[in-house]
Write a structure and sequence with these properties.
Elements lengths: L1 E3 L5 E3 L8 H7 L4 H10 L5 E5 L5 H10 L4 E5 L6 H10 L6 E4 L2 E2 L5 E7 L13 H6 L4 E9 L11 E6 L5 H6 L2 H5 L3 E9 H4 L3 H15 L1 E6 L5 E3 L2 H6 L2 E9 L2
Parallel strand pairs: 3-4, 3-9, 4-5, 6-8, 9-10
Antiparallel strand pairs: 1-2, 7-8, 10-13, 11-12, 11-13
């Protein structure tokens, strides 16, 4: 299916996907608070990373915002989705500024099992889906082997990353472990990630421990995004007390 977005981009999406396709068909947009935040935050010439690019909704938007002098790195692990991502970039003329990496983001470079969803393709994860998941979603999940990559392999290539968007359905803890050099050096201006305890499973507690260490030892602050795309300060204790948030923003203190 060819979709026209509310911000004048075009996307090719699989017609049998029930995760992002319906919302794109009805409204031409996804996750409006995050979309508004990114439009206000990202500037021409910046370097940005999209972890969990899916069909390219945010990848294309980021490419438009950084312009031909900027850089976009897009990670997508699902082999069935990567052709849609590449086609979406092609019909928007974004390959001149975008590098697609067909791997899962992880703590190291290796090969792991990735669980690809048949219907709700955006719910694919490095975490094996639990019985709680299948109470809500009636579908098949196919395990496939995928290569992984740690973001720190680019520490020598990118002095800084202006914005990093992470939407990888429970793989956040391992992604953070793999970008220690960037985080320790406060070399990422803005990190936006989903916080979902159900998706994180056993990684939830160690992930919060890791976030606390970056708050206490490196000086990161945390925020939520309101409906208009504005930042609202939040404590880690508040985040830990809730079942999850779709958008958590992490920034180093000035």
């Amino acid at each position: 299916m060819l979709i026209s977005t509310s911000w004048n981009g075009r996307l090719l999406v699989p017609a049998d996907d029930l995760s992002v396709m319906p919302e794109l068909v009805f409204t031409g947009a996804l996750e409006l608070p995050l979309t508004s935040f990114i439009i206000n935050e990202v500037k021409h010439g910046q370097t940005v990373v999209d972890m969990g690019a899916n069909v390219g909704y945010f990848t294309v938007l980021l490419g438009l915002l950084v312009g031909p002098t900027g850089k976009v790195v897009a990670y997508e692990a699902n082999p069935d989705i990567i052709p849609y991502l590449n086609d979406s970039l092609s019909i928007n003329y974004m390959h001149d500024r975008t590098t697609v990496i067909p791997k899962a983001v992880y703590s190291c470079d290796t090969v792991i099992t990735f669980y690809a969803n048949a219907k709700y393709k955006g719910n694919a994860s490095i975490q094996k889906h639990t019985d709680v998941y299948f109470q809500h979603y009636k579908e098949d999940v196919v395990p496939v082997s995928v290569e992984t990559e740690a973001l720190d392999r680019y520490a020598g290539l990118f002095p800084t990353i202006d914005l990093l968007k992470i939407d990888i359905e429970g793989g956040e803890y391992h992604a953070f472990l793999g970008m220690k050099s960037f985080l320790d050096g406060r070399r990422i201006g803005t990190i936006v990630f989903e916080l979902n305890g159900t998706a994180l499973q056993d990684d939830e507690a160690p992930f919060f421990d890791l976030l606390r260490s970056y708050r206490d030892n490196v000086g990161y602050t945390f925020h939520l995004i309101d409906r208009e795309g504005r930042l609202v300060p939040v404590s880690l204790e508040e985040l830990a007390a809730a079942p999850g948030y779709p958008y958590v923003v992490m920034k180093p203190k000035p």
